[in-house]
What we know:
Number of strands: 4
Structural class: mainly alpha
Number of domains: 1
Largest sheet: 2 strands, antiparallel
Mean pLDDT: 77
Oligomer: single chain
Low-confidence stretches: 9-16, 303-346
Amino acid sequence: MKDNNSATVIVRPAIPDVARSGLGWGLVGVAAFSFTIPFTRVAVEGLSPLFIGSSRAVVAALLATCALAVTRQRLPRGMQWARLAVVAGGIVVGFPLLTSFALTAASASHGAVVIALLPAATATAAVLRGRERPSVAFWWATAVGALAAIGFAFAQSGGFGQLHWADLFLLVAVAVCAIGYAEGGLLARELGAWQTVSWALVLASPLMVLLTAVAIAEHPPAGTQVQWAALAYLGTVSAFLGFFAWYRGLAIGPMAKVSQIQLIQPVLTICWAGLLLGEDLTRLTIIGGVAVVLSAAIAVRIRIRPPGSAPNPDSTNQVLVLHPERTAPCTSQPNGLTSRGKRDRR
């Protein structure tokens, strides 16, 4: 086959390292999500947790519906709906409701434990679902970062203590959110980043509208302006706009590496808790934050080897291409070689 044949796909490396763009988008998403716990803590002071967890999804679903309609996105097909249900169950229904109820009894700094555990859970879900094989060094860096994050977050909140019902809610929230993140990251490669979260919001909207109505009937909302502003952020950014960047980063990947940027999130969350809620920021918080950031930096620099492949010095410049006339992906390299290491010629 000649190089100028229409079936030949040659990718020129316009960007030196594609993986870095995935990490960058992931960092933007994490920064947006880092306000979720403090703002939820603010909102639950005057609004019911059921209303917060459900109404934020309704607000986001309205934005998603408008975006999908204006851009005339095609409907998901077949099993994509089932996969969207998994995403919706984790990030639209499970995580918001569970954390809203948990934060009625836990402080924002204690809630940061959720963020500390989430990267390891997401990486595990990503490995199982996406068939990625992180190296042993990657897992060591992940474990050290997670332990550092958990240690300083618990110390900041006053120690480990006994397992409270709020902690059980937070742990379950971590599990369902990790599954939603991993499935959403894979589905974003087919539907697009913002399209994935938008369809998940639309799919879950009937249930969330019903729960919002129940919450209003039980406890008519009567919050302050600050509490309503916090809820507005949760509905527009935490539940919608933040996922634009986050899923784009996961889709570019590698998924397990991008997920480790979440290790920085508990540092940011506790900082916002100190600035917005007046919680004390101790020297231990600063030391723990430095440890988490360094562990995350090490983790994201460790290379992940695809299943069944040998190390390749040019793997960081590989680009995943879907040819318009094919359904199978073709991995092209900057030197015009195919993934088998030979020129595609007859």
